[in-house]
Specification:
By secondary structure, this protein is mostly helical. The protein has 16 helices and four strands.
């Protein structure tokens, strides 16, 4: 009887577990899918039906434009600014009309005399333009949200700042945490090692919110607020505790005989570290790198408080600032979110197995 109940419980429990797993996967994937396809929708589409698939930016062969004149709120390329009379300036009448957002600058030399001689207020249809200009307008219209996010939201410099903060901080914390982990695990100073590990563990328990004000005052006093080096030092300091705990547990399980052999061959502590410890800790290095890189890439509070100028802000703050400045352009905001989210997702899905292997290895290796 008990065997039958166990088999019945097994057969009932398995479908339930699958339902829970599929439901959790859908809750995770569907918002990302919605964000991705909605980033190709115009603001008007998002206002009409937030869940519909994109249409207006893709179905643009018969779009209508109106001829406009230069104005202060019209962003023009440099070559167009220098020779405005050689270009026909157009603005969409269906996507963000009267706001000088979706604009086209067509060289009059490539237009028919009838179109080239039209003046402000006259209408121009895409299907009456040459094929090469139709294709150009079609591509620029489909990528309207993304080009606007980069150009009007100034995301290019913030994207580069995020790359610098992530790469330099991750490399620094990996190198330092491996050195600390090697020292507390393999060097003959047990009491000092216990004190160091205790202090590092205490640092792991300290949250960012609890020290943000004294951290800001300290960096202001030494002149490191609103600087890239200041942000890198802060990110490195906050990442060292967890990285050191993982590294020390992994290194502790490595055979002491390897280090003793290196010492017999004349290698000093630093040489043994570079030649033996670093190559053998690749799994935990990958784990530490990915976890910290994802955290720094998505970090918001520290860079919001410590980086006040546009030159030092990172991508998450750029997305937030862009959102607050252009709150009516939902498509731009979603495009900015995709730009910020895509690199982190690519890295995570590419190396998620490595993360699991490194964490498990650091936890159970003896």
């Amino acid at each position: 009887m008990s065997d039958a109940l166990e088999r019945k419980g097994f057969t009932v429990g398995k479908p339930i577990s699958y339902v829970i797993f599929i439901g959790w996967a859908l809750l995770t994937i569907l918002p990302l899918f919605w964000m991705a396809y909605s980033s190709f929708k115009s603001n008007e589409e998002l206002t009409r039906n937030i869940y519909a698939f994109p249409h207006d930016l893709f179905d643009n062969k018969d779009d209508e434009y109106v001829v406009i004149t230069p104005s202060l709120n019209l962003i023009m390329p440099k070559d167009v600014k220098e020779n405005t009379s050689d270009y026909l300036l157009l603005e969409s009448t269906s996507i963000a009309p009267n706001r000088k957002l979706l604009t086209q600058f067509l060289p009059k030399s490539e237009l028919s005399p009838d179109v080239a001689n039209r003046t402000a207020g006259d209408l121009v249809y895409v299907n009456e333009l040459p094929n090469n200009l139709q294709r150009k307008i079609s591509r620029s219209t489909m990528g309207f949200n993304y080009t606007s996010a980069f150009v009007r939201g100034a995301l290019t410099k913030k994207f580069l700042n995020s790359i610098v903060y992530t790469t330099v901080s991750t490399f620094s914390m990996v190198f330092l945490s491996l050195m600390i982990g090697y020292a507390v695990s393999k060097m003959p100073f047990p009491r000092l090692s216990a004190v160091v590990i205790g202090l590092i563990g205490l640092g792991y328990l300290i949250s960012t919110n609890s020290v943000i004000i004294p951290l800001f005052l300290m960096l202001t006093r030494i002149g490191l607020t609103d600087t890239r080096i200041g942000m890198i030092l802060v990110y490195t300091a906050f990442g060292i505790p967890m990285s050191t705990l993982l590294a020390s547990q992994f290194i502790k399980g490595l055979p002491d005989s390897l280090i003793e052999s290196a010492e017999m061959d004349g290698a000093g502590p630093f040489r043994a570290f570079l030649s033996i410890i670093v190559p053998m800790t690749v799994p935990v290095i990958i784990t530490i790198s990915i976890i910290n890189a994802l955290g720094i890439w998505n970090e918001f509070l520290l860079v919001l408080v410590l980086a006040s100028s546009e030159a030092t802000k990172s991508l998450p703050v750029g997305v937030y600032s862009f959102s607050s400045l252009t709150s009516t352009q939902l498509g731009w905001q979603l495009a900015a979110l995709v730009i910020a989210t895509a690199p982190a997702m690519i890295i995570y899905f590419s190396f998620n197995r490595r993360i699991t292997q490194g964490v498990v290895a650091g936890a159970v290796k003896e």
